[in-house]
Amino acid sequence: MNSNDVQNDQTRPSYSASGHAFRFRSIRKAELAVACILAASLIPGRALAQTTNMSNQKSDTLSAAAKRKVQKKMVQLGSDTGEKRTARADARPAKAINPQPGPFAKFENLRIKGLEVNLPGPADTLVQDKGGIRSALAEIGIGYIAWTQNTYVNNLLPNAAKSTIANQLYSGQNPTFYTLNYMMVTYDLSRYGIPDGQIIVGTEQQAWTWQPGGPDRWGINTIAYYQTFFDRKLELKVGYLMNSYELAGTVVGGNPGANVFGPSSNVLYQGGMNFAPAPTPTLNLTYHFDDRLYNKVSFQRSTSPDGVFAHITANSTGLNWSTANAGLLLLDESGYRNSAAPGLPETWLRAGVGFNNSHYTNLASPTQSRADENSLYYVAADRQLWQSHVHDAASRGIYGGFSVMGAPPDLNKVSQYYEVRLYAKGIFDSRPSDQISLVATDTVWSRFAVDAAAAKGNLVHRDAKAISGTYTAHLGPGIYASLGLTYIDHPTSITYTPQIGHALNFSASTSIFF
Asked: What is the rounded CA–CA span in Å between residue 96 and residue 149?
């Protein structure tokens, strides 16, 4: 999901029209293993050459046989040390172990650090390094990324109960358009001896034809300081952050440009997690036990307990220290993650809990004073099921995953959320960086909120189910276009009328990175 398509608990549906974290670590052991194998293979070759020089009786025949034997032993395909294959006669030559750095390698240290999502690098932008502007800024330690997402959503069903924009109840009930625009700048502090040190400053502007979906705003999305300690075992990031890009991993496939609409669970946001239009003061600490196992703890000022719309309305610039009734949110996530490598499928397992001492309205006793100590939990997993191009592009293939989230029903309108996803990256050779996703969700409403609405004589539903299919085409460097179709059973929150019991939303979106 896109972290910016978070819906107002009062009026927005459980299924968002907008989509929303990832750094991959290289496996040094594999490189060392391959180097050792090559060195070991050279020894018999040299000994054989010496023997051939000593005996001239069958020099030509022996030389040819030796070459074939050495070549057969030397070729080891892939970087997985547990998987060694002998090359066929028609096999492609192995890649160089130490390839020369590309023209964009000098920008790697200037990309935004500490994120779980994989924002495109400078090579995958529209402007790349045209005119040498990016290189000139890099010389003085400055990097940047900017992008725009523009999305159109419309319910295709004939009985969609179209209304005026003012009375619209969910995204797509009337044709809905929104634009999200970002600009983020980094400054490299490692040049001053600070390990991986970086300052990040960003801004976000958004506009919606349906205001409860947004609302319109312009302000900051990040003002942060980042560095590492103890040989990168510990990461620190502090400032005004957007944790939706740093925890839980809600973006299907990891690339925000390839997933701009889709499922959106309100569990994280009603629990107080900050995101791009609603950054709050935050301290994140991540400890890496090894290259795969980690624990991340976050101390953040909660967003408004009255919902996303109320928070953005009260603090549109994002610079306010706090909003009314907002307290402290503590989040802790533990996870296991490895990036895709030849013969090693990508795997990401994570689980998190959150505790929030903001002043929430008690849905079981709404006339009483506000309650404290809200909480949430989530468990999620993603696994690469099949690698379509094992040796040259290990991340391409088919993936599966699921998410389960929950929160107390007396303090939260969404008490449970379930998601199952199947997605593919680059399965067509002609479209190696396209993405396809199929996602099914079930959002369960608080029984206290449902019973209260039913007592007033309203038609109510206990949950909202949805299934979404999306195809994202990578049209060129920095240019993505997505088409999606989403069926939603009960797109409104808790109450409904027979005319708005179902929706079939068509979505079209473009994402352009600069």
From this structure: 38
Q: What are phi and psi of 442, to 5 degrees?
A: -140, 120
Q: In this structure, which amino acid lies at residue 183? A: M
Q: How far is it, in rounded angstroms, from Cα 5 to Cα 363?
A: 25
What's the CA gap between 386 and 198, in Å, rounded?
A: 36
Place of tokens 């044709």: 175
Is the bond into 103 cis (omega within 30 degrees of 0)?
A: no
Compute the half-sphere exposure of residue 169: CA atoms within 13 Å on the CB side of its CA.
18
Helix H, strand E, coil C: the string for 109-145 is HHCCCCCCCCCCCHHHCCCCCHHHHHHHHHHCCEEEE
Whether the pLDDT of residue 33 is over 70: the answer is no
- pLDDT, the chain, mean: 83
Check residue 164 and give its pLDDT. Answer: 74
Q: Where is 508: in which H helix or E strand?
A: strand 502-513
Query: Both ends of the chain: CA-CA distance in Å?
Result: 21
Q: Pick from 375, 340, 372: which is nearest to 359 by CA? A: 372
Residues 6+ apart with CB under 8 A from 226: 113, 114, 196, 197, 198, 199, 200, 235, 236, 237
Mind listing the pLDDT tens digit for each residue in 279-319? Answer: 999 999 999 999 999 999 999 999 999 999 999 999 999 99
Inter-helix orientation angle 59-74/28-54, to 10°: 170
d(CA 352, CA 365): 28
Report the sign of the C-alpha dihedral through residues 4, 293, 351, 426, in that order: positive
Element (H, E) at 269: helix 267-270
Tell me how far apart the alpha carbons of residues 195 and 184 are, in angstroms, rounded to a whole number.
Answer: 21
Residues 6+ apart with CB under 8 A from 488: 13, 15, 464, 465, 466, 502, 503, 504, 505
- Give tens-digit pLDDT for 377-430: 999 999 999 999 999 999 999 999 999 999 999 999 999 999 999 999 999 999
Question: How far apart (Å, rounded) are the C-alpha atoms in residues 397 and 35?
Answer: 28
Structure tokens at 502: 């179902």
| CA distance linking residue 180 with residue 360, whole number of Å | 29
CA distance 403 to 423: 14
Neighbouring C-beta atoms of residue 506, cutoff 10 Å: 16
DSSP 361: -
Q: What angle do CA 342, 347, 348 make, to 5 degrees?
A: 150
Q: Which of 128, 192, 171, 133 is nearest to 18 (CA)?
A: 171
Coil, helix or strand for 166? helix
